[in-house]
Amino acid sequence: DAERQFTSDASHELRTPVTVILAECEMAEKMPEDTEAVQESVTEIHKQARKMSELIGKLLAYTRLEQGTRRIDREELDLSGLVEDVCEEQRTVAARNIRIECETSHDVLVNGDVALLISLVQNLVTNAVKYGKDGGHVWVKVYSEGSKACVSVRDDGIGIREEDLACIWNRFYQADRSRSDECRGIGLGLSLAQQIARLHGGRITASSRPGEGSEFIFSMPET
Ligand code: ADP
Q1: Residue 133 has pLDDT above 60, yes or no
Q2: CA-188 nearest atom, ligand 1
Q3: Alpha-carbon dihedral of residues 223, 154, 136, 46, nearest 10 degrees?
C-alpha cells in the first residue's frame, strides 16, 4: 500500500509541471514571431523543468536510501565545521534579507557520511529561509549534550500549526498548500532528512509557535 501511495504521489507531483511545460511549448510554437511571449514561455518552462529535476533528484536519493542501494561512507568528521560550511554557502543564496547566524564553540566529532549530513543540514537551513519572514533570522547552533552531537536550526518565520507538526515528516506533505507556486517545495526534504538522521542512529525533532517561528533539532551519537 505504501509503495502504491508513493508512486501515486510522485506521479501526481510530476504531472503538474509536465502539463505546464507542454502547454507552454504549444503556445510558443504558435507564436514564432513574438519574441517577448516566447521568452516568457521559455522562462516558465525552465522554472517547471527545474522543479521536476529537483523532484526527480530527491526521489532518487530517497529511494536509494530506502532500498539500501546507496552506500553509506562513514568517516570521523567535525559537525561544527560541516555546519559552518553549509551556513556560509546558504548565506550567498539566501534571499529576502534573511540573516543566517551560526554558533559553534568547539569541534563536535561524529561518525557519518559527509554528503548525507550536508544534505540533511542544507534541508533544515533552506527550509528555515524558505518559511522565514522577510528580513528575519535563522539561528544555527552546534553543541554537545550528554553523549549526543546536536544541531539546532531555529527561525522566526511563519511557524507550523500544532496539527501539522506530526505530519511534516511524511513524504510529499506540505503544511501550507495554498502558498504560491513560487515558494512551494515538494515535501520530500524533511522525510529525506529524517531518514538520513536515522541511518546515523539519530533523529530530528521539531517544535514551533505559529506566527513566531520553528526550531528543528538534529541529534546523533558523538564519537
Ligand atoms: P518542502 O519544503 O519541499 O515543502 P519539506 O519536507 O522540507 O518539504 O517540509 C515539509 C513541510 O513542512 C513544508 O511544506 C512546510 O509546510 C513545513 N516546514 C518545514 N520547515 C519549516 C519551517 N522552518 N517553518 C515552517 N514550516 C516548515
Answers
A1: yes
A2: 6
A3: 70
